[in-house]
Amino acid sequence: MRRSLLLLLALPVLASCTTVVTGSPKAGTTLEQRGPAGAVPAGLERFYGQRLGWEDCDAYATTGSSAAALRNKRNLECARLEVPLDYSRPDGKTIRLGLLRQPATGDRIGSLLMNPGGPGGSGMTAAASLAPGVRSSPLGERFDLVGFDPRGVGASEPRVQCLTDAERDAERLDVDVDTSPAGVAETEAENKRYAEKCAEYSGRDLLANVGTRDVVRDLDVMRSALGDEKLTYLGYSYGTYIGAEYAEAFPGNVRALVLDGAVDPKQDQVESLIAQGAGFQKSFDAFAAWCARRQDCALGTDPAKANQAFRDLTLPLVQRPVAVGDRQLSYNDAITGAIQAMYSQELWAPLNSGLAELKEGRGDVLMLLADNYFDRDKDGRYGSVTDAFTAIKCVDEQPVTDRAVLDDVARRYKAAAPFLDDGNPAVGVLDPCAFWPVPPTAQDGAPGPGLPPVLVISTTGDPATPYEAGVSLARELGGGLLTFEGNQHTVYLQGDECVDTAGNAYLVDLELPPAGTRCS
C-alpha cells in the first residue's frame, strides 16, 4: 500500500531564478519566490508564482509517527502551498498542501518531488526519513529533495477524515466475515454509514476534489512555485499512477520520471484486484519456503501445508480475539499484520515471531505490524492514510455494484490467495464506494506529444503491484523497463547497487538502461 525513497541527477541548470521576497513573516520563516517557471495555465498565475514561507517542520507533525520523522531534524524545512480546492473555480475556496524540503548542498539542478504511494501516504514523512541518506549522495548535492502531502493527506489542510480514532479502533474489531444474507446486509449498512461519516467529517466539496486528477494539477503548481521549468519526479506504488497521469496531462512539462512498483492505469480494477491477490499469495509462498528452513518456523517444515497452518492459527481469532494490553488483536488485525509483512522480506522474521506468539495466546508483534499498516501511534492517534485511501479510490474508480460481478470477484480472489480464505462462502459485498456521496472524477487519456523517455522499475516478486503491471506501464508510456528479481514492494534506493546505478544514470544523464536489463 505504501513505501518510500528517492533519486539522482545532472543537466543544464534551469533558466529560472530565486527571489527572496521581503515582508514580515513570523520569526523563523523565510519567504521565497522562485516561480512562476515554465508553462502557466491561464487564470492560475497567482498559484504558480506564489511565494512560500519555509519554516521549522515541528508544527507539521500530525501523529507520533510523523513527529518522529519531522521534529528537531537538521537541514529540513517545511512550507504550505496554496491551491484551488476546485480547479474549475480558481477564484473560489483554496486549500493548503504540506511540503518538506532538504535543500541541495551544491550546484543545484532543481527539485526532486517524490510520492511514496498509498493513496494516502505522506510524502513529507517519507522524504524526511530518506533525507539523511540522500544528503550525502550526489542527489543531495544537486537536487532539493521535496516530499509533499497530497490534498486531504497528512499535514495538508483540510485532511480527509471518515472515522475518529475511537471509531477506527472499534472498526478494526468488527470482523465482517459472515456472508449470509443477513451478514452481507449488515456489512453493507456499515459501509454506507462509513461513506456518510466521510461526508459529515470531511465535507462533500473536499471529497469531490481529492482524486488523482486534482493531485496532478497540484503537482504542476508545485513544479512552478519551486522554480522548475520541467518536473523531476519519483513515484512509488500509487505514486506511479500520479506520475503516469501527470505524463498524460502535462507531457511537455516532464524532465524525468522514475516510477517504481507500478500501478497499471489501464488495467481493469477487478483484474487488478485479482492480480494483487495472486501477488500476495506468491509472496506468502516465498515466506513459507523461507520459514520452513528455520527450526522455529511457526507454520511447520512443509511449505505445501503453510496455507492451512496459517488459517489454523488466525481463524480462531474470529470468535476469540487475543488480549494485547488493554486492546484486543482481532482476526482483521492478524491478517493485516501478515499483509504488511509481505511488503518486505525484512518483515518475514517479525511475522514468524508474531505467528509463534499467536500459538501461545499472545498478539503483540502482529498488533505492531497492523498498527504500522494503519499508521496508529502508541497514543492511539491515527494518520490519514486509511480514510484518504478510500476517499481517493472512490473518486478515481467507477464503483462496482453488479452483484454477479462482486460474487465472481470474491470467488476468484479466494482462489488467487488461498492463505487468506476464511472458509466462508464467496459472496460479494458493496464497498463504501458504492455509497459514496460524490461521483468519480477520473478521466481516461493517453500521453500526449512531447513526453521524454521515462523509467519504470518493476520487481518480479512484488506482492502489491505485480511485475506485469510495470511491463504494461512502460509500454503505455513508451519508456524503459528495469527488472528487479526479488520479493518486495519497490526497490529503488533501497540498497541494491545494480538498480540504484541504473536509476541514477537515468536521472543524471537521462540515459535509460539497455533494453532487457535485470538486477537481482
Give me the Rg, rounded: 23 Å
Mean pLDDT reading = 91
Please identify, by name, the CATH architecture of the domain at 30-158 and 212-267 and 448-509.
Answer: 3-Layer(aba) Sandwich
End-to-end Cα distance, whole Å, is 23 Å
Provide a count of the helices: 18
| Unreliable parts | 1-24
The major pleated sheet works out as: 9 strands, mixed
Strand numbers in spatial order across the main sheet = 4-5-7-6-8-9-12-13-14
The fraction of residues in strands falls at: 5-15%
Q: Classify the helix fraction into a percent range.
A: 40-55%
Helix-and-strand structural type: alpha/beta
Silhouette: globular
Look at the structure and name the CATH superfamily of the domain at 30-158 and 212-267 and 448-509: Alpha/Beta hydrolase fold, catalytic domain
Number of strands: 14
- Assign the CATH topology of the domain at 30-158 and 212-267 and 448-509: Rossmann fold
SSE order and pairing:
Blueprint: E1 19-20, E2 30-33, H1 45-48, E3 52-54, H2 64-70, E4 77-84, E5 94-102, E6 110-115, H3 123-135, H4 138-142, E7 143-149, H5 165-173, H6 181-202, H7 204-208, H8 212-225, E8 231-236, H9 238-249, E9 254-260, H10 269-292, H11 306-314, E10 322-324, E11 327-329, H12 331-341, H13 348-359, H14 364-374, H15 385-396, H16 403-416, E12 455-459, H17 467-477, E13 480-484, H18 497-509, E14 518-519
Helix pairs in contact: 2-3, 8-9, 10-16, 12-14, 13-14
